[in-house]
């Protein structure tokens, strides 16, 4: 413990002792026990018997200590004995709190990664291209790069025709945000996709394009990503692949072209008739992503349930749309009609459903079991409500406890909810995928699933020792 002298009143000196922490009683007891039981080889035995480290990790710690560097002052005790004697109490205390030598969370992937992607929570960004607020900030590839460097595994791009209607820009539609060219974003994604994690990267595309621009995007994606791009062997999947099977692959998630027009029709746009160019020029092409008006989530039918065939659109090009559609691994959609119907599980195919945080809150009140049942095979994406123009976030716990895999967050700020999200995804080696608990994946003999509102007895109490990391019994 150091001391510091300060002069005051020109002639008097006063000493203050620094408030360094003393080793608490449990650390003192552990140090004494290790020294009494293990003798000269105390540190190595402590690492093996108490910390449950494997020999390779013990060797790494001892080598780091003997080399100094990050170990700082606690490296000196290694040279005192050729047999790696137990350090002094202060050195032992310093070792326990060293983030490099004794980290609180393992930086290795330790969970089973061979289950379908729907069995995992996935680190998900919202409007990943924005540099600030949701209303008038710039669009850029810089926040996309930052998100990938932080381990985010789902990047969102909103695609709109540029001013000349001959290429595609990325911007927040219906706002004052400045655009960025799609190719700039795609090139940055390719360069940084696996800098923090080798597990699959999902790109969610909010599509506001005409058929010819969709074909152009399909060509850009295929050419830019090359062998990194995963192309499914069939139009629909009856089960999602596992993160392990898709390591170092990029997968696309969006609405197939036909579903895009159907959504516009269901929203009451009766004049679409396939002429998206004209609608865009007139300013009537409404944004249908996370800034669309939140539906009330009630169990009410839509007025429009008729499906629009592809042949009804005179500008629809089946061959062109096919090139775009075949790249989609995770087919996306938003609820149409009754919420109960939107959450129905199709045994023959899997899909992704998107709900706003407002819709989720209302849906969990009346359809909680349906949501959990849906997320056992399908993917549920939750996004911030449109009024969060300052890029704030919501509490993710309700979404997580109902099995939602993609809880999309704005990464532009530093609010409490974002820190919670970032801390949560430090688990499992920070790979961006965290296995959902078994109780969210199990179904009872009568089809019953976990009820988040049920009052359940406590099965196990976890006591955390704040100073000594004790491994689980194998």
Overview of the structural elements:
- The protein is of the alpha/beta class.
- The protein has two domains: 23-66 and 87-104, no CATH class; 117-269 and 321-440, Phosphatidylinositol (PI) phosphodiesterase (TIM Barrel, Alpha-Beta Barrel), CATH 3.20.20.
- Helix content is 29%, strand content 13%.
- It is built from 14 helices and 13 strands.
- The chain has helices spanning 25-38, 42-49, 55-67, 89-96, 142-149, 182-192, 211-225, 257-266, 276-282, 318-325, 339-342, 357-375, 397-401, 416-424, and strands at residues 3-8, 12-17, 120-122, 154-161, 168-170, 180-181, 201-207, 250-254, 328-333, 352-356, 379-383, 406-407, 433-435.
- A nine-stranded mixed β-sheet has the order 6-5-4-7-8-9-10-11-12. The protein has a two-stranded antiparallel ribbon with strand order 1-2. A two-stranded antiparallel sheet has the order 3-13.
- Strand 4 and strand 5 form a beta hairpin.
- Helix 5 runs parallel beside helix 6, helix 6 runs parallel beside helix 7 and helix 7 (211-225) packs parallel to helix 10.
- The longest helix has 19 residues, at 357-375.
- The model is unreliable at 69-73, 75-84, 270-316 and 469-474 (pLDDT under 50).
- It is an enzyme of class 3 (hydrolase).
- GO terms for molecular function: phosphatidylinositol-4,5-bisphosphate phospholipase C activity.
- It catalyses: a 1,2-diacyl-sn-glycero-3-phospho-(1D-myo-inositol-4,5-bisphosphate) + H2O = 1D-myo-inositol 1,4,5-trisphosphate + a 1,2-diacyl-sn-glycerol + H(+).
- InterPro entries: PI-PLC_fam (IPR001192), PLC-like_Pdiesterase_TIM-brl (IPR017946), PLipase_C_PInositol-sp_X_dom (IPR000909), PLipase_C_Pinositol-sp_Y (IPR001711).
- One of its GO terms (cellular component) is plasma membrane.
């Amino acid at each position: 413990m150091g001391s510091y002298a300060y002069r005051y009143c020109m002639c008097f000196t006063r000493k203050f002792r620094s408030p360094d922490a003393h080793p608490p009683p449990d650390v003192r007891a552990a140090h004494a026990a290790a020294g009494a039981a293990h003798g000269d080889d105390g540190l190595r035995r402590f690492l093996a018997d108490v910390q449950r480290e494997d020999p390779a990790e013990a060797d790494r710690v001892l080598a780091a200590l003997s080399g100094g560097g990050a170990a700082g002052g606690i490296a000196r005790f290694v040279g005192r004995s050729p047999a790696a004697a137990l350090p002094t109490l202060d050195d032992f205390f310093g070792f326990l709190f060293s983030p490099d030598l004794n980290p609180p969370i393992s930086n290795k992937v330790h969970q089973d990664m061979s289950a379908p992607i729907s069995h995992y929570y996935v680190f998900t960004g919202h409007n990943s291209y924005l540099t600030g607020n949701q209303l008038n900030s710039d669009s850029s590839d810089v926040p996309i790069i930052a998100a990938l460097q932080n381990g985010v595994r789902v990047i969102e791009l909103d695609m709109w025709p540029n001013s000349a209607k001959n290429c595609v820009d990325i911007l927040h539609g219906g706002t004052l945000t400045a655009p960025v060219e799609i190719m700039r974003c795609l090139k940055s994604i390719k360069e940084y996709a696996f800098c923090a994690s080798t597990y699959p990267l999902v790109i969610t595309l909010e599509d506001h394009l005409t058929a010819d621009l969709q074909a152009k995007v399909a060509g850009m994606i295929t050419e830019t990503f090359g062998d990194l791009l995963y192309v499914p062997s069939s139009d629909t999947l009856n089960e999602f692949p596992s993160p392990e099977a898709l390591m170092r692959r990029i997968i696309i998630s969006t609405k197939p072209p036909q579903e895009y027009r159907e959504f516009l029709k269901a929203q009451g746009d009766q004049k679409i008739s396939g002429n998206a160019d004209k609608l865009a020029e007139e300013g009537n092409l409404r944004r249908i992503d996370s800034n669309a008006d939140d539906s009330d989530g009630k169990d009410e039918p839509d007025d429009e349930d008729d499906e629009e065939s592809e042949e009804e659109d005179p500008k629809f090009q089946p061959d062109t749309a096919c090139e775009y559609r075949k790249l989609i691994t995770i087919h996306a959609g938003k609820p149409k009609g009754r919420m109960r119907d939107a959450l129905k599980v199709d045994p023959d195919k899997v899909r992704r459903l998107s709900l706003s945080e407002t819709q989720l809150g209302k849906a969990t009140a009346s359809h909680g079991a349906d949501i959990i049942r849906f997320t056992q095979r399908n993917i549920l994406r939750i996004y911030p409500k449109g009024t969060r123009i300052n890029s704030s976030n919501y509490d993710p716990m309700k979404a997580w406890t109902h099995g939602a895999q993609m809880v999309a967050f704005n990464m532009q700020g530093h609010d409490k909810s974002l820190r919670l999200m970032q801390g949560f995804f430090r688990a499992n080696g920070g790979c961006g995928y965290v296995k959902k608990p078994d109780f969210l994946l199990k179904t009872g003999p009568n089809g019953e699933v976990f009820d988040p509102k049920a009052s359940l007895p406590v099965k196990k109490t976890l006591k955390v020792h704040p100073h000594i990391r004790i491994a689980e019994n194998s």
